[in-house]
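Now for a sample.
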Amino acid sequence: MKQISESEIKRLVKLGDKSFIRVFDCLYLRISSTNRATWNFRFQSRGKRMQMKIGVYGERNSKTLMDVSNAIKTAIDLKNKSLNGDNPKLDLRRKKFYEIETVEDLATLYLLNKKDKIRTVHILERLYFKEVHPFIGHMLLKKIHPFDIYEVIQQVLKSGRKSIANKTLHLCKNIFKLGVKNQIIEMNPAANYSTKEDAGGNSRPRDVVLSLEEIEIMFDVFY
């Protein structure tokens, strides 16, 4: 199959008709609209066909855009890796995990995962950025200590917001639980704290009619 020229690629991207074009061996260009296109690499891993996005098309290579020549070089490199038994798509995911160094990095990953599962992730984002981020968001995960979590909860309790303290503790537990699951950290610094002893305590039994927003908060934090 004759290789498509750079000038033809430029013309097609400018035209903007939705299409999926083979540019080079294992390299494809997905055109979604006028001047918007992404590079995709196709390969096989353990007999299964796979595909991954490797960059955004640009006439010139930059930090955010990938030109034709660089896309071809990247595809050749990825193909060689796949022929050696590597899974480039899995390697890319692993690289993202390796780049997670701070509490903020881990919280961002947690909240991104939640966006795919719940509609009201903004409630969790608000809770994190108001109650957790100002105190430990900048800290390296390897430096975080259970006492840091304790201090976060105490700051909320000092303001008299017991129910928010409970929600904040559960959020911290879930954020660091994700880190342990993916072996980014070895232990969950919030694991040994409880709402009864270390946060706002158990609520007294009473009949309460929850608003829709309060119901959403309850399910988002606990599940």
Observations:
- The mean pLDDT is 88.
- Residues 100-222 form a domain with the DNA polymerase; domain 1 fold (CATH 1.10.150.130).
